Amino acid sequence: MTTLTARQKLISYLADADDSKVNALFILLENEIQDEQSFSLTDEQFEMLENEHNLHVEGKSKSYTRYEAAEIIKGARDI
C-alpha cells in the first residue's frame, strides 16, 4: 500500500469513526502533532533575523518577491 493510499484510507476512516477512536488516535499522536506545530528560533537565529529585517526596513538590503526568488533559484535571473 502506498503512503497516499494509506492517508486516503485514514482520512476516510476518521471521517466516520466514533469519538472514542478519534480521541485514542489523537492521544497516540498528540506529542508529534504539537512538535510539528511549534517553531522556535535560537537567540542567535532571532538576532540574525532581526538584523536582516532592520536592514530591509532601512532600505539597506534588497528584497525579492516570491516570483523573483523562484527565478533566482532556477537560475533564470541574476541577483
Structure commentary:
- This protein is 72% helix and 0% strand.
- By secondary structure, the protein is an all-alpha fold.
- The protein is elongated.
- The longest helix is centred in the middle third of the chain and has 19 residues.
Q: Could you give a quick summary of the protein structure above?
A:
The chain has 79 residues and is an all-alpha fold. It is built from 4 helices and no strands.
Strand and helix layout:
Elements: H1 3-16, H2 19-37, H3 43-57, H4 66-74
Assembly level:
single chain
Count every beta strand, where a strand is a DSSP E run of 2 or more residues.
0
Can you give the mean pLDDT? 87
Q: Report low-confidence residues grouped into runs of 5 or more.
A: none
Q: Sheet with the most strands?
A: none
Distance between the termini: 45 Å
Key words describing this protein structure:
4 helices; mainly alpha; elongated; 79 residues
